Amino acid sequence: MIEATRRLAFEEIPIIDIGTLANKERSDSCIESLRTACVDVGFFYIKNHGFPSSLITDLRCVSAEFFSLPMSRKMNFKISPQIQGYLPLGYRSYEGQQREGTSHQEGFWVGHQRRIDPENPLDGPNQWPPECLEFQTIMGRYFEAAEDLAKTLMRGFSLALGLEENHIAHYFALPLSRLKVNHYPPQDSPLSENNLGVVPHCDSGAFTILWQDSIGGLEIQNKEGQWVGAPPIADTFVVNIGNIMEMWSNGRFSSTPHRVINVGNDDRYSIPLFVNPSAEVKIKPLVGDLAAFESFHYGTYQRDLWRNTFPVAEIS
After folding, report:
1. Domain spans of the chain?
2. pLDDT digits (tens, 9 = 90+) for 230-284
3. Start-end of H helices in 105-226
4. pTM surpassing 0.90?
5. Cβ atoms within 10 Å, residue 192
């Protein structure tokens, strides 16, 4: 049986005003709030981020059009070995926990449009359904705007670690970032972790910027092992630290487990941008005298994790 969610006040997941960062101004209080959230929680809301709200509305609308297509049509755009395309409803995965689960979710992934290259196995073209004429244009605009927001946060993370403000951005020359639209059909209250919206996991990349609709369902696991709801807050995004940022911080920042349960009677949508560095980057701590782990090649690491998480992608 899954544990009951402990519903806590919003303040237990910090809300950070990043207006100064978005305006490329320096604010010690903003950076300190960011540092504290990354250390103590690994999740936080951001407000005054400057992201165009119309893009969210437009992408939510065109993605619903795509997900309403018959499964036979959606499967024509099945997720590729480069993690681009349609992720089928009810896919099986090992979401970082070494236990298999079914995610009651379907999604559509895009990355940077690149040619297939044996030297760079995670590069490839996006797939676009011709039935949804505006999908490509709107998702492309959202991707561009979200990456601009990611650059703002990179400056904040660099300063929070005591680094030069553009330091972390150097690792994103040719990023393996992926934008995804999620659809969670209505689901009766699940009885086990084997049938959640998304099973418990930590994100594998640097960090994630998530928009979630008003339905809710995101939960994070605190340091006592309790599940804490991260309810929607108007005009905010949820940001969480991924494994790579935890490693760059030499363990100071927290890559926190989370899951999704859609217990409502409505379709739930969310839009995460998974902010991932370039494939050729060698991952090692950026701060501290003693490294908490051995350095490794990011592209190989990410391919191995995606192979395990998404068997349906048939990564060789």
Report:
1. 10-313
2. 999 999 999 999 999 999 999 999 999 988 887 667 889 999 999 999 999 999 9
3. 135-160
4. yes
5. 11
Tokens for 267, please give them: 């379709």
The gap from C-alpha 202 to its chain's centroid, in whole angstroms, comes to 10
d(CA 83, CA 25): 36
Rounded Cα gap, residues 211 and 239, in angstroms: 9
* Least confident interval from 25-34, 128-137, 145-154, 291-300: 291-300
Q: Where are the beta strands (DSSP E) in the chain?
A: 15-17, 43-47, 85-87, 92-93, 101-103, 106-110, 178-184, 195-196, 198-201, 207-212, 218-221, 227-229, 237-241, 258-260, 268-275, 282-283, 296-297
| Alpha-carbon 302 to chain mean position | 14
Closest CA to 139 of 114, 115, 111: 111
Instruction: Look up the CATH superfamily of 10-313.
Output: B-lactam Antibiotic, Isopenicillin N Synthase; Chain (2.60.120.330)
Q: What distance in Å separates the CA atoms of residue 44 and residue 55, rounded to the nearest whole number?
A: 22
Q: Is pLDDT above 70 for 193?
A: no
CB neighbours of 273 closer than 8 A, spacing ≥ 6? 143, 146, 147, 149, 150, 177, 178, 179, 180, 208, 209, 210
Length of the chain: 316
Euclidean distance between CA atoms 66 and 129, whole angstroms: 8
CA distance 17 to 75: 41
Bridge partners of 120, per DSSP, are 117
At 81, the amino acid letter reads P
**Tokens at 166, concatenated:** 């553009």
DSSP readout, 102-126?
EES-EEEEE--B---BTTBTT-B--
Which of 232, 205, 173, 197 lies closest to 83 in space, CA to CA? 205
